[in-house]
């Protein structure tokens, strides 16, 4: 009677099979077989839960006939959401009144009727606030046990906080860009001008600050730098364990700074605004911190401005049909569709729930990099908090710096090879390396022409043939004291990568090669002959003599 | 619910904002169809090359100024008021006035530069499509068709999520990746294509007026044929712009590859011919070197250019008509684009928007567009004359004493009329006879010596490349077979490569491995001008660069 005898199958195979079966009787039979046979608990759970799902589906209730006394208030809340017929709802209301007559249930139905009919001409009434946990005791309240999820509002908020990310012991550019922007915004905010974003300071007329946050190891200097870029105050946390970005401690520290940190200047509930960089780490941190503070986040913003906003959404105004002007709202435009459309995100308090700090992450490069002003004054505040070991449970065993590749800049001498080596590319590179080896501080470069060729190189020189050694427009720009170009014609795209070199020596068998026009010494000849002679000459300390002789042709 | 239900949906997506795409988008927007236009260039026109004369044909249901009223005032250069063809043999030249051929069926024709023209069109298109809830997005490259259950339902791009639409207009020009993806066009046969190469030469408007003997608001079109081009079948052109000249060549791609000719050298042959000395003067300043493939509608125009929700318009559908020396691609792209839009609106009205393709095909036929693109007379007469033995005979006859006598007997008056006959020009076979042999004979027998001293020194290829603007991205062409045998033709045929030139895209190399030597080609796509030639003549996997990447023409 069953297609599948569960006792003959592994649990892993059974999962998908069982979920395909729609016949409860068959499932019951399978359950029985399993109980009589292997009696594996996971298998039984699997089958039972399938039966439950099917039975629940069967119960797909009809609002017109369902016995409301069987339903919880939450069930009713879910049910009425799909009913669009006011008559049906009225009927349900009657049935509920005649049955359990629960106030909550009737409210659900009434609300639904209201929202379908609109609130009509009635005087707008303030919606009475009941905390969600009380209002819907049967629903899940995932944030109920979070002590910081507050029903509060009307708290004091101040200041624009800017998270200043560091990399390799430096503030990254976007941190400076955000500080510059924050400075601009808060200067206007504190001013009395006619601009829309000018409020003359906080609600009491006191100026609000740009607060920079720096977290890391050995970051006091960076804190000072943050002042130079526009911060009024820098809160920094220094701990050698924080050398690298780590989710847990960084989030805890940041959240503590803006919510629990006791300092005389931090006489407010939470920051008014929190701004993060939309970098890899910044994106993570912004989401974690804003989540921890039970607020929202507009990610990847391309602009920021502060203005009042007229809002009519009753969820925000508390009064259906009313519009209300919210003040000091951070407007956070972000590109939606490849920059085609922008949405401006606002993070606004609800009547009984605060959405502060208003949070944004900002695309690097969206704002100009400001000039630092090292004479600016600002307050440095060291944040102290014991960081429990369990925040550092994740141990970083190894860290790899993405290969920065070959850096040809900073050499005294660069020997560059071009397609002139084509007759014997391996030998050409060997000759180039020989010459490089004569100098203390020298390296090998190439024209693009070599790197994109179909040349075959012997194994021992192949390591050099690497796009990272390309010199020119689409490669590196070098300015060594001596640039030796062998078998390079001197195309404009190559030239821009080397013509600031102090002395340029070109080796080419074509007397009309363009490179001649911008070389100090032009040695006309076959590089396979000239390079070894140059190497010998350098060994003998006579480089300039050879060059001189050769170019006096 | 399938995942694709989440994709952004528009009523119509138009790919490419050249004349074909612009016309389609404008006509759609005029009918309130929600239209999104995707263009891969940083700006419309930044990828495009034409000669170019835009024609407004009297017999055509749509002309570009029907759809864009201020077009001639805002987007074009000079109107063509005089037209000549020059038959050249060495320094002997016989010139004919062919204005009547030009004016045949032409309401007007204006010279254009594509950067200026297309970016002006694009602004109008953006304004118009915005009204419908769509718009124009640049720097977006469509890289394929979106299919659901095997049926085309939209496009995929390199920059955005896939987009669904009830109508997909592929107006993506020659080498249409969408037409290829749909299996409607292939890039195999060199004899279905021309290659056009052009130089835009800076010139003071006063100098233009003086050298051509014209005034403001007047312009010249000159065509060139004969032995100027080392036996390669094709011709040259010179058009006057406001403050520059467009001088270029258009060759049959099969002939170019057979002769292993260097396109830039053939262009230089024209630029340095004594005949051009009178116009070019002593101060040659080349603003831009450019190139692009051109389909030959006689062979390439797809008779049924649609599939599912996809319609092809313009070069993407091979709708580029070479009427002898006169090249008409832009006007047909406009007509086809507007007809495709019309077809969609009709289909929508019939409650079957996805049937637009069939209606479009029918309109192309009913409006006579298809007959212009693939004339029945060519299918019989022209093709026959191309068959090799016959073409050898006609060639030999023309070049014989009898042929020569004929030319003399006919005399310039009749020849001029013959050259001016649109019928004659439409059936002209693609052999050397009309392109090279006859013009050469004409010049030899009837021409006059030009002994002016042409001092023009065209820039070398490396300088031409150096003067172009590139935003280099990842390589967009992959060399599948790098043996010289398979892909060596590209070394000469690529307009920015040449034998013994290390700075081009394609370079031939002799590579020694274990004692034996192989003849290979290597490819660097950085100097590529995306002309499409190597997609046909070499063994490549060929795509366009991603949005905004690659060459950026300032003139076009
Ligand atoms: C040298 C030369 C001379 C010519 N002379 C003339 C002349 O005198 N008169 C004339 O009428 N015609 C002439 N032509 C032909 C004419 O230029 C074309 O027929 C015409 O441009 C075709 O228009 P179109 O709209 O179909 O395609 P195009 O004008 O080629 O437009 C296609 C557009 O699609 C975009 N695109 C392509 N692929 C994608 C993608 N995957 N995703 C997004 N966008 C994409 C391109 O960037 C481009 O903007 C000449 C051509 C050449 C090369
Ligand atoms: C957008 C763009 C970006 C580019 N970016 C770069 C870039 O960043 N860097 C770069 O280098 N190129 C770049 N290029 C390519 C550049 O244009 C040239 O193609 C390239 O530099 C040529 O390399 P080459 O000089 O080695 O080769 P070639 O130009 O082929 O020159 C080889 C030279 O070697 C000489 N020669 C031959 N045999 C011998 C011999 N036995 N002894 C001595 N001399 C000999 C020849 O006379 C010739 O002058 C770029 C091109 C473009 C279009
Ligand atoms: S590489 Fe190919 S597409 Fe690019 S310019 Fe050369 S032939 Fe044209």
Give a topology summary.
The complex is a heterodimer of chains A (553) and B (556).
Chain A: H1 11-18, H2 24-36, H3 41-58, H4 73-81, H5 86-98, H6 103-117, H7 132-135, E1 157-163, E2 166-167, E3 170-171, H8 173-190, E4 210-216, H9 220-228, E5 233-238, H10 247-259, E6 270-277, H11 280-292, E7 298-301, E8 305-311, H12 314-317, E9 324-335, E10 342-345, E11 358-362, E12 379-382, E13 413-417, H13 425-436, E14 442-446, H14 448-451, H15 459-462, E15 482-486, H16 492-495, E16 503-508, E17 521-524, H17 527-539, H18 543-551
Parallel strand pairs in A: 1-4, 1-6, 4-5, 5-12, 6-11, 7-11, 13-14, 13-15, 15-16, 16-17
Antiparallel strand pairs in A: 2-3, 8-9, 9-10
Chain B: E1 8-15, H1 19-30, E2 35-38, E3 53-57, H2 64-67, H3 71-75, E4 82-89, E5 92-97, H4 99-103, E6 106-111, H5 114-130, E7 135-137, E8 142-148, E9 151-157, E10 163-170, H6 177-181, E11 193-202, H7 205-212, E12 220-226, E13 234-240, E14 244-252, H8 253-258, H9 263-271, H10 274-280, E15 286-295, H11 297-300, E16 306-307, E17 310-312, E18 321-323, E19 326-328, H12 330-349, H13 356-366, H14 369-373, H15 376-386, H16 388-399, H17 401-419, H18 422-427, H19 432-446, E20 448-449, H20 461-466, E21 469-471, E22 477-479, H21 484-487, H22 489-493, E23 506-513, E24 516-523, H23 533-537, E25 540-542, E26 550-552
Parallel strand pairs in B: 1-2, 1-10, 2-7, 4-12, 10-17
Antiparallel strand pairs in B: 3-6, 4-5, 5-20, 8-9, 9-10, 11-14, 11-15, 12-13, 13-14, 16-17, 18-19, 21-26, 22-25, 23-24
Bound molecules: flavin-adenine dinucleotide (2 copies) and iron/sulfur cluster.
